[in-house]
Amino acid sequence: MVGKSDKDSNSGGGDKAEMVEMFLKIGLEEKTAKNTIANNKVTANLLAVIQEAEVTDGCDRTVGNLLYTVATKFPANALVHRPILLKYIVSSKIKTPAQLEAAFAFLAAIAGENLKANEFEDACGVGVEVSAEDINLAVNEVFEEKKSMILEQRYRTNVGELFGHIRKKQPWADPKIVKQLVDAKLVELLGARTAADDEKPIKKKKEKPVKDKVSAEETPPLKPSDEEVNPYTIFPSPEENLKVHTEIYFSDGRVLRPCNSKEILDKHLKTTGGKVWTRFPPEPNGYLHIGHAKAMFVDFGLAKERGGSCYLRYDDTNPEAEKKEYINHIEEIVGWMGWEPFKITYTSDYFQELYELAVELIRRGHAYVDHQTPEEIKEYREKKMNSPWRDRPIEESLRLFDEMKRGMIEEGKATLRMKQDMQSDNFNMYDLIAYRIKFTPHPHAGDKWCIYPSYDYAHCIVDSLENITHSLCTLEFETRRASYYWLLDALGLYLPYVWEYSRLNLTNTVMSKRKLNRLVTDKWVDGWDDPRLMTLAGLRRRGVTPTAINAFVRGIGITRSDSSLIRLDRLEYHIREELNKTAARAMVLLNPLKVVITNLEAGSVMDLDAKKWPDADDASSMYKVPFSKVVYIERSDFRMKDSKDYYGLAPGKSVLLRYAFPIKCTEVILGDDKESVLEIRAEYDPSKKTKPKGVLHWVAESTPGVDPLKVEVRLFDKLFLSENPAELDDWLGDLNPQSRIVIPDAYAVSALQNAAVGDKFQFERLGYFVVDQDSTSEKIIFNRTVTLRDSYSKGGK
């Protein structure tokens, strides 16, 4: 489900001013009412609670505040009991926040089981009246217990902590009376508030502890949370799928609470063996991006962790946008990411079953053939108006749908629409299209069909037909949950467990398939695998490993927080962590400057040992580098004027050539302009007695008079200048002109001459690089994966 566009994401319905007025009637503050309207989910919940509690004409503020708490905190697994709780609130049998919290805890524990009124009332303190004398006694007891602390801290005492101790003694006490008595008791004990009480306390400077290597080693690391160890613990087991999934409120007052019957669930569990079955359902209309990596981690990862199975299902309901190229790419990239599908299926595999169920939906009076144009459908939905054909006879819709299937109706002249609720507060219940006519051959199903199901119709049904236990998708699909369960309930099918998580949004890039397609087709980038794109093919070509991507996704977690961008340097941190362990070291110069060693005999070449790994200690961890009369250093490592904080080479100064010898600059050859440095003359110290501070990487001629190995190096950077280019009207104008810089004639150590496509290296002092697929036998091409700089680890992982 990651990556699908969702034009119908607005779940709000009705006039905002009217809703604010209704919220004010139940006693909400104006600011709270307006803030509520800004949150579609809370608005929908609160409207439902108000209607269910039958207080649309208003109520007491105390009752209203409790209703608001129900709308925001009611346990989702106990929705079937919410009407009962609301009756207790409206009748003032439950009248304090403490009672309400106790009710939530009780209902969450019993979930969908039968509610026993006597046990519920005992747990919530219904009918318990705590006298002022009893409350005063509890307050006095707490003040006596905490007297020394209160006298020391005076009016800086944490009053909330005192309230907590009083609640333990009298859980059903009226909080207003508690506050009055606590305030009075503080004045009685401490006297009037003084100026000193209002002064900010002076913070004592913390003494730095003496470093103790032994104790530091013995201190155990902080224990990670359960979700850090196993992010899949949040998902319920398949046998728990008897609970109400959601509540669907209809404009006529009906409430649908869809849940599986025991017979349906038992049949499902028999098929799956009680195992977790998930699916990864990409549309084959483009290349997968890093957001799909998170979807794979959730879908395949949950199934793997629970010992279950995950389908790779191609959501191929739109024959015009799908290509065999994309299908092949998806299967290949899923394997590259380390996931193995239980089975590969296509939504088109179920076209016959989907058609038969559509016929059944018409027979049950839940669908009709419509002749409105797309423009008319849009207008009628905006005005919440029924189609003129909505109430046509069932037999007539059955006949017309059959004619649609047989190609007897022109494309665009008819659709099959689900008969849902055009006056709903949820835009995704406005009679969604189930089938449309398209005289286009299908890449997988061929030319058998000229009618194709919509995503909204097919997705949930195929989930059910494949016995999916957990239908996992990104948050923009949350408003479609009502339609998902309405359709399955209307057909009497098994209901999977649906859970939405936040989509992955990275800085300095775009993730929309439409925008990615624009970049590729308009040649702003060099194809779907351009290393600057956050497509998985692009990341692979850039040298990023699936291990690093999965570690990055695991680090983000499976949350429902959908408001933040993840900084790109967080991904880069995981890339460096992986490549630091796996990429062999080598030396390459991007802008070489010639250095002639004057005290080394012409034609002399020494083969020196260089380390592939920092901790190398045997011959297999070494590679040979020639040291000869002509060596090269990075041009940026030389300057004419030295300074104390400069560790490069300068006239009269010495540096160490890594793995080789110290050299000292004795002469500088300038160009005709008397400024450009053409060549440096230097002497080397064969005894290595010189101990310079600066250490430089270098490359030498392996054969006198022959240039070192020439390679092409491509330096990739962020594709966009802004952190969130998707928000910009002229997002293409934000492209980074320096996102790709090509160095055609870099110098490399000869050990790289046999590097193969995909080989990864750390070029010392430069970054991590990978051999690109454009490499030839004449020239090797390296792509920069990431620099050596790491800003993210300083702030945390």
Strand order in the sheet with the most strands: 12-25-26-27-23-24-13
The CATH architecture designation of the domain at 248-501 is 3-Layer(aba) Sandwich
CATH superfamily of the domain at 248-501: HUPs
List segments where confidence is low: pLDDT < 50 over at least 5 consecutive residues. Answer: 1-14, 211-220, 792-797
CATH topology value of the domain at 248-501: Rossmann fold
The share of residues in extended strands comes to: 15-25%
Please report the total strand number as a whole number: 27
Structural class: alpha/beta
Residue share in helices? 25-40%
Give the averaged pLDDT, no decimals.
88
What global shape is seen? globular
The termini sit apart by: 27 Å
| Rg on CA atoms, Å | 35 Å
Question: Which CATH top level class of the domain at 248-501 fits?
Answer: Alpha Beta
Largest sheet, strands/sense/barrel: 7 strands, mixed
Textual characterization of the structure:
- Among the domains are: 17-124, Glutaminyl-tRNA synthetase, non-specific RNA binding region part 1, domain 1 (Helicase, Ruva Protein, domain 3, Orthogonal Bundle); 132-192, Arc Repressor Mutant, subunit A, CATH 1.10.10.2420; 248-501, HUPs (Rossmann fold, 3-Layer(aba) Sandwich); 585-710, Ribosomal Protein L25, Chain P.
- The chain is 35% helix and 17% strand.
- It has 26 helices and 27 strands.
- A hairpin with a 4-residue loop joins strand 18 and strand 19.
- Helix 16 (290-305) crosses helix 25 (546-556).
- The relative contact order is 0.07.
- Pfam families: tRNA-synt_1c, tRNA-synt_1c_C, tRNA-synt_1c_C2, tRNA_synt_1c_R1, tRNA_synt_1c_R2.
